[in-house]
Amino acid sequence: MAEYFRLRQICLVARDLARVIADMQAIFGVNLAYRDPNVRRYGLENALFPLGLAFVEVVSPVEADTAAGRFLERSGGIGGYMAIFNCSDPERRGRHANAVGVRTAHTIDHDGFYAVQLHPRDCRAAMIEFDRTEGEEDLRGPYHPAGPQWLAAVRTDITKRLAEIVVESPNPADIGRHWARILEKPFAAGDEGGRIDVDTTAIRFATGPDARETLRTLVIEVADRGRIERRARERGYSVSERGIEFCGVRFELTD
Prior knowledge:
Distance between the termini: 35 Å
Strand order of the largest sheet: 9-10-11-8-12-15-14-13
CATH superfamily of the largest domain: 2,3-Dihydroxybiphenyl 1,2-Dioxygenase, domain 1
Mean pLDDT: 96
Strand content: 35-45%
Number of strands: 15
Low-confidence stretches: none
CATH topology of the largest domain: 2,3-Dihydroxybiphenyl 1,2-Dioxygenase, domain 1
Number of domains: 2
CATH class of the largest domain: Alpha Beta
Largest sheet: 8 strands, mixed
Structural class: alpha+beta
Radius of gyration: 17 Å
Order of helices and strands: EHEEHEHEEHEEHEEEEHEEE
């Protein structure tokens, strides 16, 4: 089997999932692909949207004292919750992360799907997950978190794809090198921070406005910027040259 390593999915946390589902579809012109009943065992409900062949998932606590709920409280609702890397060897990558001092928080193993979730305090900014679905080598093939019919939900006439994420830190080069060690990918330093290039979605590191480290921005390639910005304003969201403040992160629009 050929090796692959893709940043395939970003997970956000919200209190009002029904509103997020409605607004995500109305503003960004994407479809709801799946709501996974299995996340109820973690005290959550979720919704998953394809942006091209990558995904944005939104989870919402439905019980007290969940990990996602604690994240919301700590962060004040700012920042993404998880960066999920789809790869050929999650078990080995989990062991490597442990060897460089990053603890495993949780593993999932069922129905041809295996995932290693790393401890968010050790990762910094956001939890990192490595996962694999049997048969997923083809990007249009099975992807367990998105349900059995996800490909039929893909729509690219308004929002084309998730192109990049931005992690903010007072010391972006430091967290960039930290993530590079975890991911076993080179860190390319730049004047404003740096980046790690992986398949599907790239990772950029930039200086944040305060002491927090956050997964702060999703960069999305769009086909109809004007429509997206107009719909966001109509639904009460802040829109600026930097993007749209939505679900605890900034959606930065690029043509």
